[in-house]
Amino acid sequence: MSPVKRLKKSTKITAKAGKVIARTASGAAPSLVYFNRELSGLAFNRRVLDQATSAANPLLERVKFLAILSSNLDEFFEIRVAGLMQQVDAQTTEPSLDGLSARDQLRKIHSGVNALVKDQYRCWQEQLAPALEQEGIVFKSAAQLTDSERAWAQKFFTAHVQPVLTPLAIDQLHPFPQIGNKTLNVLVSLDNPETPDQEALIAILPVPNILPRIVHLEPAQPGPHRHIFLSEIIKLFAVELFPGYRVNSAHAFRVTRNSDLYIDEEEVENLLKRIEDELRNLRRGAAVRLEIEAGVDETLFDVLCGHLNLPREYVFRLDGPLNLLRLTSLYDIIDRPDLKYVPFAPVELPQLADPARIFERIREKDILLQHPYESFTPVVDFVEQAAIDPEVFAIKQTLYRTSGDSPIVRALIEASRNGKQVTALVELKARFDEANNIKWAKELEEAGVHVVYGLVGHKTHCKCSLVVRREGDGLRRYAHLGTGNYNPKTARLYTDFSLLTCRENLTVEVAELFNALTGFGRSPVFKQLLVAPFNLHSRLQELIAAEAANAAAGKPARIIAKMNKLVDKVTIDNLYAASQAGVKTDLLVRGTCCLVPGIKGLSDNIRIRNIVGRFLEHSRVYYFETAGQPLLYCGSADWMTRNFFRRVEALYPVEDPDLRRRLIDDVFPAELRDNVDACELRPDGSYVPPPRAEGEAPFSAQKYFMAAAEQRADAQIEVATP
Question: Cβ–Cβ contacts within 10 Å for residue 282, how many?
Fold first, then answer.
């Protein structure tokens, strides 16, 4: 990070139309500084690697973190790097937020990723693999196999692998094959013994995804669990696929391709069919990365890069097995609870034990669930009960990501078959879930559900469910509003909040939101909800401006904001201005963050930390002091330009006094106190553990929330017990 320019100490703040403007005493706009978005994303992934290297984590959990890093880097290249490469090809001159050109960003990314990947493989080779071996979990290379293991591997190859492999020659009669995105392939160099003077031949072995990437050697034999990567077996016995030839070398490789969808919705009559076509085309996206085992012959390497049309700066030679994401399966294969986190089951609250009384419970009091500490089951119950309740007339539901066997979708289908009016807003462009959502959209439509795809040009990312129920002589609306997806599986892994409410001031606006999405609503008015692309961005700027004005007037002023990413330039600038006005600001930003904290005269009142631990921090929660009358919002939106203007997002206020106290007095303080899983972002872009006072005990917010959820459940049991 280049040296930052500092502001003059004397500044003044003005607020106009919801935008805060910071100026020096002379009236000139100050020089602001920003972190690069892509490099900040890599810094977050460095934090993930830290979890893999930390001996404080159980061994198999460390292996899982190493695998998660591989998955994150895949998406980083498929989307972020691919976009920058397109900018270079298009000769785009617009710089990034921190002033770098696309080409300069790619240079820095290559350097950062290269160092990260080297450390990732060093972690595997020097830490995790030896530690696993000490626990009786051994990974072997082909050269390390005993005679017995080699014989078993050959039988496995002959029976399960060879029949599904198709060798593809590369010569004048055989064009270079289409290499699928993120698929395993083996590059083979061959010689014909009868023509030793001729140039070596080249072939490629694409490996079908149906084959397991980690093979358990001689599973019937007692002793240590011995494993080998499938690529090692294929390289060892590749000669059997080329009878009469001699194999000189064999190296596994993998190509990552541009995987973003390019669709102009206004020009597409059938969005579902077009996305299906685009998904098929993703296999043919431009190559953006080549991963290949170290030691490959330079001639073969040049041939491969030439056919892929990929410069060498996008090539990574790996000292170890390709695609460490495959290590995820090891977690399920190995039954060693002592090498995993102590099991934790989300707490089932006694208050919500009877699904048939879910609407009664919501009428009594708003319910705020903190996942995964508290079970996601009541959210499923909410939709399932609505599906079978004869008093329910209509259900409206957004679906961004959900599980493959979604009980929510099944409930919507059942509700439609029960004669209720059911509307589902399915986001077809939910990245990497497009195929799954297309499947659900078709099944819902076949069951009579009204399936719509939201606003043209905007992803529907808000998490809303609305139930209309007859009660007495009228109708009452019930709503679920969340920060996370309607996915019971990820709800056990991601931290999120769910609000169940029947407050009329909220549910009437949820109904307005659905009407805007399903019908025509150019400018709906929301007073309680903050909804993108309508009022979310402007209202947030007004709230930040109000804190700045209050601080300047000597009134209580404070901002606490928890999110996944902070990228929007206007919001960052206004946070800088609020800091200059004296607003104490704590930002909990899990991933990418472009705001630079702790710069004297600019952001010295802003502290940024993130938590990377057992659960993925995913909730978005926002607090504004407003001169002693705090406003609290939860919802789906990060502070990114795309969330403000290119997505449909919803933040909802938390109004119940008990729930507000829980967030203000318990949740925020615990996360700001964490000194185990948290790190603080420094002005140079590094993350460092928060300082501990002498004698200060370790404190993990996630462990605290696990215990707190159990205490809440116990307290409900005590209240219910006569």
Answer: 18
Q: Which CATH class is domain 52-135?
A: mainly alpha
pLDDT level of residue 299 (50, 70, 90 thresholds)? confident
d(CA 352, CA 381): 9
Element (H, E) at 190: strand 184-191
List active site positions: 461
DSSP secondary structure code for residue 28 in this structure: P
Q: Which two tokens stand for residue 405?
A: 């066997």
Looking at domain 350-524, what is its CATH homologous superfamily?
Endonuclease Chain A (3.30.870.10)
Helix, strand, coil percentages (3-state) for the chain, rounded to 5, are: 40, 25, 35
Task: For residue 116, give the H/E element and its range.
Answer: helix 102-122
Query: Quick one: 153 exposed, middle or buried, by C-beta within 10 A (0-12, 13-18, 19+)?
Result: buried
Residues 142-334, CATH architecture: 2-Layer Sandwich (3.30)
Strands 620-624, 11-16: parallel, antiparallel or unpaired by DSSP?
A: unpaired
Closest CA to 205 of 234, 246, 229: 234
Residue 383 structure tokens: 């939709």
Q: How far is CA 619 from CA 42, 148, 633, in A?
A: 21, 52, 11
What token pair was written down for 498? 């769910």
Question: Do the Cβ atoms of 284 and 335 come closer than 8 Å?
Answer: no
When the pLDDT of each residue in the chain is averaged and rounded to a whole number, the result is 88
Q: What is the dihedral of CA 434, 439, 441, 442, to 10 degrees?
A: 140
Which of 621, 614, 563, 625 is closest to 588 using CA atoms? 563
Q: How large is the greatest C-alpha to C-alpha distance in the chain, in angstroms?
A: 94
**471 is written with which tokens?**
């009660």
Q: Do 11-31+531-690 and 142-334 fold alike per CATH?
A: no
Q: Which CATH number among 3.30.70.1400, 3.30.870.10, 3.40.50.720, 2.60.40.10 corresponds to the domain 11-31+531-690?
A: 3.30.870.10
Report CA Rg, the chain.
Answer: 28
Tokens 């048939």 found at: 356
Q: Residue 523's pLDDT band (boundaries 50, 70, 90)?
A: confident
Tell me if residue 217 falls in helix, strand or coil: strand
Domain boundary assignment for the chain:
11-31+531-690, 52-135, 142-334, 350-524
Which pLDDT band, with edges at 50, 70 and 90, does 267 fall under? Answer: very low
Residue 573's CB: how many other CB atoms inside 10 A?
A: 21
DSSP letter at 667 equals: I
Residue 15: predicted pLDDT: 33
Residue 180 per-residue DSSP state: P
The two structure tokens encoding residue 608:
């940024």
Using alpha carbons, select from 423, 187, 448 the residue that is nearest to residue 296: 187
